[in-house]
Amino acid sequence: MRIIAITTEAMPDKEAEAINLLFDNGLETLHLRKPSVPEESVRRLIEQINPLYHPKIVLHDCFDLLGLFDLKGAHLNRRNPLPPQQKPLSVSCSCHSIEEAKEAGRYDYIFLSPVFDSLSKAGYRKGFTGEQLIRARADGIINEKVIALGGITAETIPYIIKYGFGGAAVLGALWGAFAEDGNLTALAERFNRLLIVRP
Description:
By secondary structure, this protein is an alpha/beta fold. The chain has helices at 15-24, 39-48, 98-101, 130-138, 157-162, 172-181, 184-197; strands at 2-6, 29-32, 57-59, 73-76, 90-95, 109-112, 146-149, 167-170. It is globular, with a radius of gyration of 16 Å.
């Protein structure tokens, strides 16, 4: 089961250093999500990330940067619903219902959310019951190409495994405190706790 990190929408201090640290600690994929940040600022952030890790970065916005850097791919969403002109290695998308998740075969993988109550979006409640997720697994809808998003913590990962997801995408549990304290050591510890509980 893979762990995918999603960046915050803001640009916290030491973000590039934090991203490099996560990759140093075994992060497989980072989703760079900066919907309100100018493309030039996103470009500068990528330039500060070790080029060895660029092929592990997926963009949610600023798809033109796929032509400037050797990045992993593009994540389609409501802001950017169409694949970019330049063919990325990977194309993923966001889904918010079991019905939408049936389209997973068209993509390299999808995010299904919110699986649990969101930690990063106040009031964003889980969208599925455990029974619905178990049924979706039995029906072959939830599989290795479906990544759980929303409320992902070390405590919820065992449920993600039970429901048959191929991985978990984490945002709030990883970055919430970092935005406040900028503590790189604590960030690495939070990430490593997530890695320990996965199979």
